[in-house]
Amino acid sequence: MIPISIRVSLDLVKSLYAKFIDWDNQMIDQETSTPSHATNTAICEDLGQNRVIFRRSCITGIFYGNESGDALKDVELLNAVSSGLPYVIRFVTVMAICNTVIPVKSKTGAISYEAQSQDEDALNANTLEINFNASIIQYEVLDTLEFPSDRKRMSVMVKDCQNRKIFLLSTRSR
Q1: 141-157 pLDDT, tens per residue?
Q2: pTM of the model
Q3: Residue 117 burial by CB count (10 A; 0-12/13-18/19+): exposed, middle or buried?
Q4: Could you count the other beta carbons within 10 Å of the beta carbon of residue 77?
Q5: pLDDT in tens, 19-52
Q6: What is each CA distance from 18 to 8, 21, 43, 83, 139, in whole angstroms?
Q7: HSE-up of residue 119 (Cα within 13 Å, Cβ side)
Q8: Using CA atoms, how far apart are residues 130 and 5, in angstroms rounded to an integer?
Q9: Distance between CA 170 and CA 174 in Å, rounded?
């Protein structure tokens, strides 16, 4: 058993470490010129990991993407979205909504998306920009069931703002 004082001390140190990362003006992503920002206190465990890229997906038996690219930029997937295939649109919608990604507005007015994990960052960086035939699809998030390790899934209850229908969307880990 770990004494509570050690757990509290560890959480305090992790929070302070995350603040030091935020304050470091030399920690900049070279590709995007974005300064560092710790979105959670588990940043220490994430340091040194490679960037995660969502390479492949399988929707109703059809594979999109490949080992060398980004599945969300796959021409076949984008064509399937623009042609209105319902299963593909549902898949992309669930990926865009069922997460803990937060939009953050910079001082210049640019909007960036921050995720709690590299997995969510890889899935949602491009998902939010997929064009659904130039239409805006709005959902109101009614409730979020977080991703606990024993349940191995995250669920979000949303209301479609156009037709007022309520959906329970879920993602799961293998």
Answers
A1: 888 877 666 666 778 88
A2: 0.56
A3: middle
A4: 23
A5: 888 888 888 877 777 787 777 676 666 565 556 6
A6: 15, 5, 7, 44, 32
A7: 8
A8: 47
A9: 13
